[in-house]
Amino acid sequence: MREYLPPHIGAFWFRDITGSTANEAAIRIAQKATGNTDVFSLFLSHHGQSVAATGVSGNAFRHRSFTLPFPGSVKVPAPDCANCFFGQTPDRCRMLCATRVADFAEYASSGRIAALIIEPVLGNGGNLVPPDGYFRELRRVCDDLGILIVADEVQTGFGRTGTFFASTGVAHELRPDIITFAKGAGGVGIPVAGVLMRPELDVLEPWEHSSTAGANPLSLTALEETVNYIRDHDVLDNVTTVGASLLDGLHALARDHVTVSHPRGVGLMQAFDLSDADAVHRFLPVAKRHGLIMRGSRYGFGRAVKVRPPLIITPSQVEDLLDRLRAALRTFEEEGS
Ligand SMILES: Cc1ncc(COP(=O)(O)O)c(C=O)c1O
Hints:
- The chain contains nine helices and eleven strands.
- It has 337 residues and is of the alpha/beta class.
- It folds into two domains: 231 residues, Aspartate Aminotransferase, domain 2; 100 residues, Aspartate Aminotransferase, domain 1.
- Strands 1-7-6-5-4-2-3 form a seven-stranded mixed beta sheet, sandwiched between helices. Strands 8-9-11-10 form a four-stranded antiparallel beta sheet, covered by helices on one side.
- The site of pyridoxal-5'-phosphate has 15 residues, from helix 1.
């Protein structure tokens, strides 16, 4: 996998099989390496199901029924341009969602910040692709404050955005100190996860973070074979090429259907919005009737419909997908969207 890593990433920790615990490992690494406690994360983020991973995730509906203590968790506004926390438009915002992280450090944290964890494209939160310049500014602010950056690439990794990691493509200016991965790393659904980092952050002892099934031979074989498959079948080129036609197609659908707005995405990590979460609930079964398995965002609380075909989808299958989507939208609108 080395050939696909940013050059400054040289160490790994492969003792996890879920993205949730890989993110926990990343938090422990950042805390141990810096001697600090707090973790910044984004509104709308999703980092997993464990206490710490849920604790740093930015959605109240996942906390409401429990006590999930993460005392040093500080949530900062996401780069959600369609719904800007600062009431700005992209042409005049001066990237406040990145620069104001310094204010959260000054006024909302303990002053001892270990890391900022970020999904390069916020997946569950609504497939939010940050605007140009966001990653560069965020990196600058974190460098100024001595905060490590963890890129949670559990969704974006292994080719989903057209490069092996988003951190080597659309998010290369983030220059994360730590990268976590899972999901697609197992290829056909075999659980695999891991943490990649700068060599000097390789600070954990085995007894500080490991589990029985971590680094099991099946998972490691699946990981190796997935990397080989991606390389040998030019999967990254395919994702970039067909992803561009898919996005064009979603833009065309948005022009023709008033119910569809904000087509967006990178590679084969795409989405569009319907009017609200209720419309998404009603649309998904219609899409299924047209042969499309699609999912909403924010566990049903969001208005995005995610479009996530397999990375090996062919150009003609993308045409078929778009035809089915168009037909599903027509049915949805006829049935009283
Ligand atoms: C960005 C992100 N991080 C972490 C996780 C948690 O991964 P897992 O379900 O393997 O624990 C997910 C799962 O959906 C995710 O999308």
